[in-house]
Structures are given as C-alpha cells and as structure tokens.
Specification:
Elements (H helix, E strand, L loop, with lengths): L2 H10 L3 H13 L22 E9 L5 E9 L2 H14 L4 H6 L2 H7 L2 H4 L2 H24 L1
Antiparallel strand pairs: 1-2
Helix pairs in contact: 2-3, 3-7
Length: 141
C-alpha cells in the first residue's frame, strides 16, 4: 500500500478508534519477517516494544542502490506504524530516504497528538535506524 492510499484512507476515518483499527490492519499486511531474522542485529533499540527491521539492498541496472525492508513488532499498533513507515522508505534510494521526513508525515496524519511518548520515541528510533542505513549505503557508493 502506498502512503497516498494510507493518507486517503485516514481522511475517511474521523474517529481515532477507527484510525487505530486501521493502523492495526495495516500491520497485518506486513510481509512476515522470518523468525531467524528476529536477531539482536535487526532489533531497533529505543523502542518500548520489541521492533525488528531487516534491510536488504537491491541495485538498479545502473547500480543505484535501493533499500528494502521487512519489519516486525510484538505490538499490533507498532506493526501498523512500521507498515506506514515502510510505505515511505522501502524500495527507495538512499538519497530519496534522506530527503523524506517520516516524522512530518506521521504528524500530518495526526499521530503527534495520539501516540504515547514511548511510542513516539520508538518511532523516532525506527526512523533514525533507517536514515542511518541510508547514510551508510551512500558512503559505500
């Protein structure tokens, strides 16, 4: 699902209980992260819930790297947040990832007022992990 589809669906939902249910449904659409990839290396520190992000890199015909992600969490809402985040960054070039402000998108959707401080910190940790991956991929090229 694209971020534009998520935005459109959010706009149709006035009530935050409905929006939370939608976020949980988005989490259920995540491609499964194999159990073998629930490792310390893939675990995102700074999250109250357990969160794992697995990065793989593919290359375009011209050699341009694209970062692809699978993610998982032990919390349903967080899985949904991961799904939204990955709709923004997965499959993008490092430059594209660094040009995106995921926190601004989450704020635009209204999460700033509707996430606990722990979940907000966890979201920032996930964003920083992905941005760090993008910087690392840029340095390697």
């Amino acid at each position: 699902m694209t971020i534009d589809e998520i935005r459109d669906n959010f706009a149709l939902l006035d009530d935050w209980d409905d929006r939370y249910r939608y976020v949980i449904e988005l989490g259920r659409t995540l491609a499964p992260l194999p159990e073998a990839d629930h490792t310390a290396e893939n675990k995102v520190s700074g999250c109250a819930s357990q969160v794992w992000l697995l990065r793989t890199t593919s290359r375009d015909d011209d050699g341009t790297p694209r970062l692809n992600y699978l993610g998982d969490s032990d919390a349903h809402i967080v899985r949904g947040l991961i799904a939204i985040l990955l709709s923004l960054v997965s499959g993008k070039t490092p430059q594209d990832i660094l040009a995106i402000d995921p926190i601004a998108v989450f704020d635009e959707l209204g999460f700033k007022e509707h996430l606990t401080p722990q979940r907000s910190n966890g979201l920032r940790s996930m964003v920083e992990r992905i941005r760090s991956d993008a910087r690392e991929a840029l340095a390697a090229t």
